[in-house]
Design a protein that fits this description.
The complex is a heterodimer.
Chain A (H helix, E strand, L loop, with lengths): L4 E3 L4 H14 L3 E4 L5 H6 L7 E4 L9 E3 L3 E5 L4 H5 L2 H6 L1 H9 L3 H4 L4 H7 L6 H7 L3 E6 L2 E6 L4 E3 L2 E2 L6 E8 L5 E8 L10 E10 L2 E10 L6 E2 L1 H7 L6 H14 L10 H23 L3
Parallel strand pairs in A: 1-3, 2-3
Antiparallel strand pairs in A: 4-5, 5-10, 6-7, 6-10, 8-9, 11-12, 12-13, 13-14
Helix pairs in contact in A: 5-8, 9-10, 10-11
Chain B lengths: L3 E7 L2 E7 L5 H8 L18 E4 L2 E4 L12 E3 L12 H8 L9 H14 L5 H7 L11 H15 L3
Parallel strand pairs in B: 1-5
Antiparallel strand pairs in B: 1-2, 3-4, 3-5
The complex binds flavin-adenine dinucleotide and FE2/S2 (inorganic) cluster (2 copies).
Flavin-adenine dinucleotide binds next to strand 2, helix 2, helix 7 and strand 10 of chain A.
């Protein structure tokens, strides 16, 4: 039987070579970022021995860069590190909120939003916020690099679009204009240390009180987080009046295909995703107006 | 399975140890290094009893591999007192009776010390949020919060 192995490659080239080598030899391999999902999974019966490839020693995965054009968040950057970056906080307050909601102080010291994305839980908090912010995945493999929009990355419960031998090196996000702000709201039965029953991420651009661009994404109410273009269309061209907000909320309710569990019923989740849509839109708009 | 040879600095001292690739840092501390002050409550990141600092960052040692400690600086509850002299947090926990069974206490003291280093004068809500990942089944938390506040006061105005 295969046993666990651990390796911390020093370069992207070495990482993709190890990934390809394991794939060719038919040996199990898994990327390790903050490990806050991986180590929990390892305690479960379903996790079989494999090689863990730790990406925290990669310079490129540790990049956290904010330039006037774009923002790069490497796959090894923890939520705690993001939280210490004032420029990132003011550019993407909604994404920061989402990353801040992932677990306790201790979890944030390790957890990465890229790990949250790759883990592909329907309730992953950072995913709707990344979709709203227009994030693009920077993917690396032995054959080179490719980019993929975040909304196309998660393909099912616990399933992502990574091909064999490929890993996520980081996320690239456009730098929002001064008239653009984002927000992320989730509903949980408890205020801390809980899993989202529904979540909404929104990014809005306002010109003279009129919404000129919007991205709306919903989480925890479908097998994957979803971009809801109909909700964005309802907001664009409006002054975010009640009718526009209600139309956007309805689009979110329509796009949801939730399940019932002990944390919330289908009806409740559908209702709450509409409420969160309205509140997140109001919050993003208030942020554009500087309050 | 070949064991891995890891070198790190633990409570300011260079240490080396052997561990399995899938062994958690918590198990390394307790079983390989004899540092049993760090406790295991859940083993899955929920309770904070296993809290330690890794390169200055507060983390759950149950969610970290021993192998990941290569080259890292680790601080545990054993590094908090200076020889026989207790840290103000430890004194205030005793004075306020902020512990009963004591399983959660090492993790809470390590976590609270990290908070006070970042923010020497946190308000109650900040303390409660910071410690939200540290569960206590005995005290009801109020005494813990008071002990942290008292320690903060003493550390900024030593008697
Ligand atoms: C107590 C506790 C509370 C939590 N609370 C929340 C919460 O409130 N909200 C929430 O959304 N999540 C929560 N989580 C889940 C977890 O912390 C997050 O999903 C976290 O963001 C995962 O990041 P990580 O860096 O630790 O990932 P890891 O555990 O390292 O990896 C997660 C998965 O993604 C894969 N992976 C990671 N990085 C890459 C990469 N760069 N390329 C390819 N594959 C990769 C790994 O192989 C693994 O399958 C919680 C977990 C715990 C233990
Ligand atoms: S033992 Fe690590 S969090 Fe509970
Ligand atoms: S004192 Fe017993 S768990 Fe906190």
């Amino acid at each position: 039987m295969e046993s666990y192995a651990y390796s911390a490659p020093a370069s992207v080239a070495e990482t993709v070579a190890l990934l390809a080598g394991h794939a060719d030899a038919g040996r199990a391999v898994q990327i390790l970022a903050g490990g806050t999902d991986v180590l929990v999974q390892m305690k479960g019966p379903a996790h079989t021995p494999r090689t863990l490839l730790d990406i925290k020693k990669l310079d490129e995965a540790n990049r956290l860069e904010v330039t006037p054009e774009d923002i790069y968040i490497g796959a090894a950057v923890s939520s705690a590190r993001m939280n210490e970056n004032a420029e990132l906080k003011s550019a993407l307050p909604g994404l920061m909120e989402a990353s801040d909601l992932i677990g306790s102080t201790q979890i944030q010291g390790r957890a990465t939003i890229c790990g949250n994305l790759c883990n592909a839980s329907p309730a992953g908090d950072s995913i709707p916020a990344m979709i709203a912010a227009g994030a693009v995945c920077d993917l690396a493999s032995a054959t080179g690099r490719r980019e993929l929009a975040v909304e196309d990355f998660v393909v099912g419960v616990g399933k992502n679009a990574l091909e064999s031998g490929e890993f996520l090196l980081g996320l690239r996000l456009p730098m929002p204009s001064t008239q653009t702000k984002d927000a992320y709201l989730r509903f949980t039965p408890r205020t801390e240390m809980d899993i989202a029953v529904a979540g909404v991420g929104i990014s809005l651009t306002l010109q003279d009180l009129v919404c000129t661009h919007a991205r709306v994404a919903i989480g925890a109410v479908a097998p994957t987080a979803r971009l809801v273009p109909e909700a964005a269309a309802a907001l664009v061209g409006s002054t975010l009046d009640d009718d526009a907000l209600e139309a956007a909320a309805q689009a979110c309710r329509d796009a949801a295909s939730p399940i019932s569990d002990k944390r919330g019923t289908v009806e409740f989740r559908r209702k709450i995703v509409g409420v969160l849509c309205k509140r997140a839109a109001a919050q993003a708009a208030a942020r554009v107006q500087g309050n | 399975m070949a064991r891995m040879h890891i070198e790190s600095t633990i409570n300011g001292e260079a240490r080396e140890f052997l561990c399995d690739a899938d062994q958690s840092m918590l198990d390394v501390l307790r079983d390989e290094l004899g540092l049993t002050g760090t406790k295991e409550g859940c083993g899955t990141g929920d309770c904070g009893a296993c809290s330690v600092l890794v390169d200055g960052r507060l983390v759950c040692s149950c969610l970290m591999l021993g192998a990941e400690a290569q080259g890292a600086e680790i601080e545990t509850i054993e590094g908090i007192a200076e020889n026989e002299k207790l840290h103000p947090l430890q004194t205030k926990f005793l004075e306020n009776a902020a512990l009963q069974c004591g399983i959660c206490t090492p993790g809470i003291i390590v976590a609270a010390k990290a908070l006070l280093e970042k923010d020497p004068n946190p308000d109650e809500s900040k303390i409660r949020y910071w410690l939200a990942g540290n569960l206590c089944r005995c005290t009801g938390y109020d005494k813990i919060i008071r002990a942290v506040q008292d320690a903060a006061a003493e550390m900024s105005h030593p008697a």
